[in-house]
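Can't attach files on this board, so I'm pasting raw text. These are the components:
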Amino acid sequence: MTVELGFGVLVLTLIVTLYGVVAAIIGVSRKDQRWIDSARYASLLIFPLLTLVVIAILYLIVTGHYEVAYVYSVSSNATPLYLKLTALWGGQAGSLIFWSWLMSAFTSAVMLRKWNRDREFLPWVIVVTLVTLVFFLVMSIFFENPFNRFWATPMGDRIEAMFPPAGSDLLLPADGRGLNPLLRHPGMIIHPPMLYLGFVSFVIPFAFAIAALITGRTDDRWIRITRRWTLVAWLFLTIGLVLGMRWAYDVLGWGGYWGWDPVEIAALMPWLTGTALLHSVMIQEKRGMFKQWNMLLVILTYDLVIYGTFLTRSGVLSSVHAFAQSAIGPLFFAFISLTLIVSIWLLLLRWKSLRSEGQLQSLLSRETLFLVNNLLFLGLFIECFWGVNFPLLSELVTGQKVTFGPAWYIRATGPLWGGLLLLMGIAPLSAWQISTYKTLGKAFWKPFIFSLLAVAAALALKVREAGALIGFWLVALAFAVTLYEYWRGIRARHNSTGENWLKSIWHLTGKNRRRYGGYIIHLGVILMAIGVIGIEAFQTQTQGALTPGQSLELGDYSVKYQSLAEWDTRDGKNITRAVMEVSKNGRVLQEVYPRRDYYYDSQQPMTIPGLRSTMVDDIYVILVDWEPISSRQATFKVFHNPLVNWLWVGTIVLILGSIIAVWPSTEREPAK
Amino acid sequence: MQRKFIIGGILILAAIVYLIISSSQANAQYFLTVEELEAKKQEMSGRELRISGAVIGDSIQFDPKTLALSFDIVHIPGDNTEIEKLGGLAEVLHQAVVDTSRPRLQVVYNGPRPDLLKNEAQAIITGTLDEAGVFHAEELLLKCPTRYDEAVPAQVEN
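---
Top answer:
Structure tokens for the assembled complex are below.
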């Protein structure tokens, strides 16, 4: 019953969505507000409808309706309730519904805003968001139906279908297969929703951009309306990416956090173009420049979001993420091509009206540096796109598949990341329009000296790698400049208003949340960079077989094997866990517990490291193997990961900065 | 005045292109099947390669003391559509392991034994081929399609 009901509502949602698109277009062509209002109500109806669909799926999962193929594939009797709820996005069919559901929620939020000043945008925003939804709903209904059930045909075949083939009986499995153990981790539970929230919220700026192109209202209004959406989208995407890294670090047990896997890159690409967009819209607002460029970036980001959803879910590329395989690839490709062609065509139609109002005047002006920032982000995107697609391309052209590993990406992207750090250390000090070496130098020399001191300190600490030294220099410079810039603002305010220092900080940030929130985001990124440099440049490792009482030595650290135990848990897994004692220079610090979980239902083992984590370094211990009978000898691998914790701490700072920048301001927008 | 900016922009783009090309020369990996590697042994020796094949369970040898791992892989087609035509990855892997006439490749690796390394798993291995025809792996990527792709349940209550 729930199955039919859920599917019925899903179909109804598609009808309502299609109606919304048609009504909006009729409303525009007849200039009839009633049709447009009707389209708006239809858009508002989609969210409650899809909520019903989501409830139906959750009900089926929680009550164990394993005759439904999706429920069978992501849940089992032994699955705890919280994992059953999150199984909604544990597989492909559910993920697509979840995507649509989030999209409908955001569409509703947009529909509920005040439209008085932007009436002409409304129908086109409806069309763009709803067409995107139509695509995902069609995907769900015709290709990845979450309500498909198992049937036994009279011929003795077992098939998966929505409606019973003639004369067939429903198959009722007693238990499901359960969620892939690798996905049963807190990081993995919130990683997909965060990524999807980021993906979905990028659709909103795109919808407004297209509305601006169609209506010809190509001033910066669309940017002012959507800048907060863009920042929210960017924040969620960032959180999603970092949670994925944390998951890899905690669960995959290879001592790292980022493997330049195609699926990781697929999620990184919209982040790169989105970050470029966040910066360059500021130039359009302040100086009326880069308008065509911003349109291009928002279009690119939208299609990369769809591409990212497709890559993460289609299994076209061999990857650790390839949990799902399906035939929906060509459809995604068609949709991406279609939206890209239409958007670019619209952009070319309006190309002239998007001309720059100003010109670049000085090589060191803020807008020039923003342009360089954009070129670097675009360069990173091009490299990633090239890296991911080159294997397919080379196979087509030469018949020989050539792939790129992490070494390629590190070498190709490294200098560009460095360039971005350098810009972070210069741009905040440069002035708009005209900036000379002299004025810049005046502001620059103090932070510059600080950065040289930091390099001297690194040398004193026996850091000799050139890459790491350059990295630390850039980080120190950007850090000093950002703090210095903040400090100059506070001092000016303190001196002119006579407020105390704390009040000055508070009010300065409050008055210009976007700017100072942005600086806090920069500080977060700088801290993250420290973590990345630390693990990339200084990671060391050792491995060996030990009997209890023996130790592995790594630098100043010693990891002693104490004991090993093995037991079954009530939720269907076997745990083998070692007790290891970590000491530094002979002083005992703490125990860590590397372990191996073996899941009986899926016959899959999972390696979980034992971790001692401080702000200076992580000791990361993996239980590799052991003698099953005697439980005496076991093999371990130990990683020393300096500074990696700064990556996670930096992320928290970045989130704080984003919240400050996004926080709705009570002041009214300045009239243009 | 504007010329300065155009030159600057071109310089940045040139740098990006240079980074892509020089990195490609230094770090490109050829993706080959076992059969293709067999055919181009001389040419590919010493280069960084990625090889895809099916793991033969009986050949896996692992010494937990030294972490020396050795196993054989057997040729499977590299093309996805061809794999689909032959009945899916699970079927292709099974056929490959059973077929003793197909070319095989010995792989050696130093490090922990991966959880998914078992009979009929698909291995995608990065490393280099030595002159004796043994493949020295630096990275192992393993996939077991059978476990998570069986579409219809076997056990049914009724």
